[in-house]
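FW: tagging you since you asked about this chain on Friday. Here's the raw sequence from the shared folder, copied in full. Didn't touch anything.
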Amino acid sequence: MAGGRGTRLKTPVEKPLFRLQNKPLIKYVLDNLNSSKLVEKIIIATSPNTPKTVDYIKNFNHEILDTPGVDYIHDLSFILDYFEAKSPEDILLFINADLPFIKGECIDYILNSYFECKKEALSTLIPVSIFDDLNLKYEYEYMGLVPVGVNILKSINKIQEEYQLVLNKEELAFNINTLQDADVANKYTFKYNE
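HL: got it, structure written out here
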Protein backbone atom coordinates (compact mmCIF):
# COMPACT_ATOMS: atom_id res chain seq x y z
CA MET A 1 0.00 0.00 0.00
CA ALA A 2 1.86 3.05 -1.28
CA GLY A 3 -0.82 5.55 -2.21
CA GLY A 4 -1.38 7.57 0.95
CA ARG A 5 -0.93 11.31 1.16
CA GLY A 6 1.20 11.21 4.30
CA THR A 7 -0.19 14.53 5.55
CA ARG A 8 0.93 13.95 9.15
CA LEU A 9 4.56 13.60 8.07
CA LYS A 10 4.57 17.27 7.02
CA THR A 11 7.30 17.03 4.39
CA PRO A 12 7.17 17.83 0.67
CA VAL A 13 8.34 14.27 -0.11
CA GLU A 14 5.77 11.57 -0.87
CA LYS A 15 5.55 9.31 2.16
CA PRO A 16 6.80 6.09 0.47
CA LEU A 17 9.89 8.01 -0.70
CA PHE A 18 10.63 9.56 2.71
CA ARG A 19 14.15 8.50 3.66
CA LEU A 20 15.51 6.81 6.75
CA GLN A 21 19.32 6.64 6.71
CA ASN A 22 19.19 7.71 3.05
CA LYS A 23 16.93 4.83 2.02
CA PRO A 24 13.27 5.35 0.98
CA LEU A 25 10.67 3.75 3.24
CA ILE A 26 9.24 1.74 0.36
CA LYS A 27 12.68 0.29 -0.46
CA TYR A 28 12.88 -1.15 3.08
CA VAL A 29 9.47 -2.76 2.56
CA LEU A 30 10.35 -4.13 -0.89
CA ASP A 31 13.64 -5.56 0.40
CA ASN A 32 11.81 -7.20 3.31
CA LEU A 33 9.11 -8.67 1.05
CA ASN A 34 11.76 -9.94 -1.35
CA SER A 35 13.52 -11.71 1.53
CA SER A 36 10.31 -13.58 2.45
CA LYS A 37 10.21 -17.26 1.53
CA LEU A 38 6.40 -17.23 1.21
CA VAL A 39 5.54 -14.07 -0.73
CA GLU A 40 5.00 -15.12 -4.35
CA LYS A 41 4.32 -11.79 -6.02
CA ILE A 42 4.55 -8.13 -5.04
CA ILE A 43 1.97 -5.69 -6.36
CA ILE A 44 2.33 -2.07 -5.31
CA ALA A 45 -0.89 -0.12 -4.85
CA THR A 46 -0.28 3.53 -5.71
CA SER A 47 -2.63 6.44 -6.29
CA PRO A 48 -2.74 9.92 -7.83
CA ASN A 49 -1.20 11.07 -4.50
CA THR A 50 2.10 9.28 -5.24
CA PRO A 51 3.24 9.91 -8.86
CA LYS A 52 6.94 10.13 -7.92
CA THR A 53 6.64 6.83 -6.07
CA VAL A 54 5.29 5.28 -9.28
CA ASP A 55 8.35 6.56 -11.15
CA TYR A 56 10.67 5.19 -8.45
CA ILE A 57 9.17 1.69 -8.26
CA LYS A 58 9.15 1.21 -12.03
CA ASN A 59 12.84 0.31 -11.55
CA PHE A 60 11.93 -2.84 -9.61
CA ASN A 61 9.74 -4.74 -12.11
CA HIS A 62 6.78 -5.12 -9.77
CA GLU A 63 3.22 -4.76 -10.94
CA ILE A 64 1.63 -1.41 -10.09
CA LEU A 65 -2.07 -1.14 -9.27
CA ASP A 66 -3.34 2.42 -9.43
CA THR A 67 -6.05 3.02 -6.82
CA PRO A 68 -8.29 6.12 -6.50
CA GLY A 69 -6.36 7.32 -3.40
CA VAL A 70 -9.47 8.45 -1.51
CA ASP A 71 -8.51 6.80 1.79
CA TYR A 72 -7.25 3.45 3.07
CA ILE A 73 -10.66 1.75 3.35
CA HIS A 74 -11.81 2.91 -0.09
CA ASP A 75 -8.54 1.81 -1.69
CA LEU A 76 -8.67 -1.54 0.13
CA SER A 77 -12.17 -2.13 -1.25
CA PHE A 78 -10.96 -1.19 -4.74
CA ILE A 79 -8.07 -3.68 -4.46
CA LEU A 80 -10.32 -6.48 -3.20
CA ASP A 81 -12.75 -5.90 -6.09
CA TYR A 82 -9.83 -6.00 -8.54
CA PHE A 83 -8.50 -9.32 -7.22
CA GLU A 84 -11.91 -10.88 -6.68
CA ALA A 85 -12.61 -10.38 -10.40
CA LYS A 86 -9.42 -12.35 -11.15
CA SER A 87 -9.85 -15.10 -8.54
CA PRO A 88 -11.73 -15.20 -5.22
CA GLU A 89 -9.22 -17.77 -3.93
CA ASP A 90 -6.09 -15.64 -3.69
CA ILE A 91 -4.53 -14.73 -0.36
CA LEU A 92 -3.50 -11.09 -0.14
CA LEU A 93 -0.96 -9.77 2.35
CA PHE A 94 -1.35 -6.04 2.85
CA ILE A 95 1.62 -4.13 4.23
CA ASN A 96 1.92 -0.36 4.32
CA ALA A 97 4.86 1.38 2.64
CA ASP A 98 5.67 3.14 5.92
CA LEU A 99 6.61 -0.06 7.84
CA PRO A 100 10.35 -0.26 7.23
CA PHE A 101 11.50 -2.80 9.82
CA ILE A 102 9.26 -5.84 9.28
CA LYS A 103 11.81 -8.35 7.96
CA GLY A 104 11.08 -11.33 5.75
CA GLU A 105 11.22 -13.80 8.66
CA CYS A 106 8.51 -11.85 10.47
CA ILE A 107 6.40 -11.66 7.31
CA ASP A 108 6.72 -15.44 6.94
CA TYR A 109 5.76 -15.96 10.58
CA ILE A 110 2.63 -13.85 10.05
CA LEU A 111 1.76 -15.78 6.88
CA ASN A 112 2.29 -19.16 8.57
CA SER A 113 0.08 -18.00 11.46
CA TYR A 114 -2.59 -17.15 8.90
CA PHE A 115 -2.40 -20.59 7.29
CA GLU A 116 -2.72 -22.23 10.72
CA CYS A 117 -5.61 -20.08 11.98
CA LYS A 118 -8.14 -21.37 9.39
CA LYS A 119 -9.91 -18.01 9.14
CA GLU A 120 -10.45 -15.82 6.07
CA ALA A 121 -8.54 -12.83 7.46
CA LEU A 122 -5.78 -11.97 9.89
CA SER A 123 -4.77 -8.69 11.49
CA THR A 124 -1.49 -8.13 13.31
CA LEU A 125 -1.39 -6.23 16.59
CA ILE A 126 1.19 -5.41 19.26
CA PRO A 127 0.82 -4.29 22.89
CA VAL A 128 0.58 -0.57 23.65
CA SER A 129 3.50 -1.03 26.05
CA ILE A 130 5.90 -1.44 23.09
CA PHE A 131 4.91 2.00 21.78
CA ASP A 132 5.32 3.45 25.26
CA ASP A 133 8.77 1.87 25.67
CA LEU A 134 9.93 3.28 22.32
CA ASN A 135 8.31 6.69 22.91
CA LEU A 136 6.17 6.29 19.78
CA LYS A 137 2.62 7.50 19.38
CA TYR A 138 -0.22 5.41 18.01
CA GLU A 139 -3.60 6.37 16.61
CA TYR A 140 -5.88 3.55 17.62
CA GLU A 141 -5.87 1.14 20.53
CA TYR A 142 -8.20 -1.74 21.29
CA MET A 143 -7.98 -3.50 24.67
CA GLY A 144 -4.32 -2.57 25.11
CA LEU A 145 -3.39 -3.56 21.55
CA VAL A 146 -2.50 -1.50 18.47
CA PRO A 147 -2.98 -2.68 14.86
CA VAL A 148 0.28 -2.38 12.95
CA GLY A 149 -0.71 -2.23 9.28
CA VAL A 150 -0.03 -5.84 8.28
CA ASN A 151 -3.20 -7.69 7.32
CA ILE A 152 -4.12 -10.76 5.33
CA LEU A 153 -7.40 -11.18 3.46
CA LYS A 154 -8.92 -13.52 0.93
CA SER A 155 -9.46 -11.82 -2.42
CA ILE A 156 -13.16 -11.24 -1.83
CA ASN A 157 -14.73 -7.89 -1.04
CA LYS A 158 -16.87 -8.79 1.95
CA ILE A 159 -16.59 -8.82 5.72
CA GLN A 160 -14.26 -11.69 6.57
CA GLU A 161 -13.91 -13.68 9.77
CA GLU A 162 -10.68 -12.43 11.32
CA TYR A 163 -7.97 -13.87 13.52
CA GLN A 164 -6.04 -11.35 15.60
CA LEU A 165 -2.36 -12.20 15.82
CA VAL A 166 -0.66 -10.49 18.76
CA LEU A 167 3.13 -10.24 18.55
CA ASN A 168 5.64 -8.75 20.98
CA LYS A 169 7.99 -7.38 18.34
CA GLU A 170 9.15 -3.79 18.62
CA GLU A 171 9.97 -3.54 14.90
CA LEU A 172 6.24 -3.69 14.21
CA ALA A 173 5.71 -0.40 16.08
CA PHE A 174 7.57 1.66 13.48
CA ASN A 175 4.86 3.09 11.29
CA ILE A 176 6.45 6.33 10.07
CA ASN A 177 3.64 8.87 10.29
CA THR A 178 5.40 11.87 11.83
CA LEU A 179 8.86 13.41 11.95
CA GLN A 180 9.08 12.29 15.59
CA ASP A 181 8.47 8.69 14.43
CA ALA A 182 11.25 9.19 11.87
CA ASP A 183 13.66 10.49 14.53
CA VAL A 184 13.07 7.43 16.72
CA ALA A 185 13.31 5.15 13.65
CA ASN A 186 16.59 6.71 12.51
CA LYS A 187 18.12 5.72 15.85
CA TYR A 188 16.57 2.25 15.54
CA THR A 189 18.05 1.58 12.06
CA PHE A 190 21.34 0.66 13.71
CA LYS A 191 19.62 -2.10 15.70
CA TYR A 192 17.59 -3.15 12.65
CA ASN A 193 20.73 -3.58 10.55
CA GLU A 194 22.48 -5.81 13.11
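FW: The chain has one domain: 7-192.
HL: agreed, and Helices lie at 25-34, 51-57, 72-86, 104-117, 128-134, 179-192.
FW: great, closing this out.
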